[in-house]
Amino acid sequence: MIIMKIKGNITTGLGKGACFLGQDFYKNKFIEKCGFAPFPGTLNIIVPEKHLNDIQKIKTGCNNIINGKDGFGGLKYIKAILSDNSKENNANETINGAIVFPDKTTHDENYLEFIAKENLREKLNLNDDDEVILDIG
Length: 137
What we know:
Elements: E1 4-11, H1 16-21, H2 24-34, E2 43-46, H3 52-61, E3 65-66, E4 75-84, E5 94-102, E6 111-115, H4 120-123, E7 131-136
Antiparallel strand pairs: 1-2, 1-7, 2-6, 3-4, 4-5, 4-7, 5-6
């Protein structure tokens, strides 16, 4: 069931997602709970501020939790589907993954971090400012 559909734009992150997603306990939990081992890195998506209240409600109501370990923080996650809205050759391709809400983050509230089993920038030939669509839920 789709809770929310939202458009956003790709942006370069700080590279911290690669560090936490490279930890075995996170990988194992995502395999168990989402059915895939995430690529070590997140796809950062800036969403319009008009959606922040809805995103906060999703985050607050989310019961999908992975607890932290060995100094790494916990996170919440919700399954999502990403599709590229900026290039005709990829417009119909969708990627199953999840949006993660880390307990420890330096991102502004309008950043979403999407994970999947593949490097999405390479697979979908994504660049900063490209528009994507997220089906959350």
